[in-house]
Amino acid sequence: MLQNRFLLFLLMFSFIVVSCDSNSVYDNYKSVPNAWHKDSIVSFKINPPDSTKAYNLFVNLRNTNAYKYNNLFLIVEMVFPHGKTIKDTLEYKMAEPSGKLLGEGYMDIKENKLWYKEKVVFSEAGEYIVNIQHAMRENGKVNGVVELEGVTDVGFRIENPITK
């Protein structure tokens, strides 16, 4: 009994140590119900901690095997505290040519850390808003995919740059 408790404690302690991430400044996810509607915008409100440092920005995505595309198109908009807006249309590779999904994870859910911007300085004081929306289209079709299946969570991450 004592040995089992010790093993449980050791397992929990090692999980906590491994899960700590010293580069992370902000890391948040929002769930997508059933399917991600083309008009649904996932928003994150951010108050950066330091206006003098440069950060790397990422869009995080969790998806299941129900995701049936090789790529992903996103519209990512950053709204600055004083009203300036930067909007980017981004494309990410989500699967190998064989159809095997990319990303981390051993089970049904894959997690993808997708580059958004590098060495960003949040020079304006106040709250920034990041809006993320999918912009998927099927080949040969004009209208976009209305309900994007297979995406379970959309996240946004800010990291300290890795220094060598």
UniProtKB/TrEMBL annotation:
Entry-linked Pfam families: GldH_lipo
InterPro entries this protein is in?
A: Motility-assoc_lipoprot_GldH (IPR020018)
Keyword Nucleus assigned to the entry: answer is no
Signal peptide residues on this chain, from the entry's feature table: 1-19
Which UniProt key words apply to this protein?
Signal
In terms of superkingdom, the source organism counts as Bacteria
Is Flavoprotein among this UniProt entry's keywords? no
Its protein name is Protein involved in gliding motility GldH
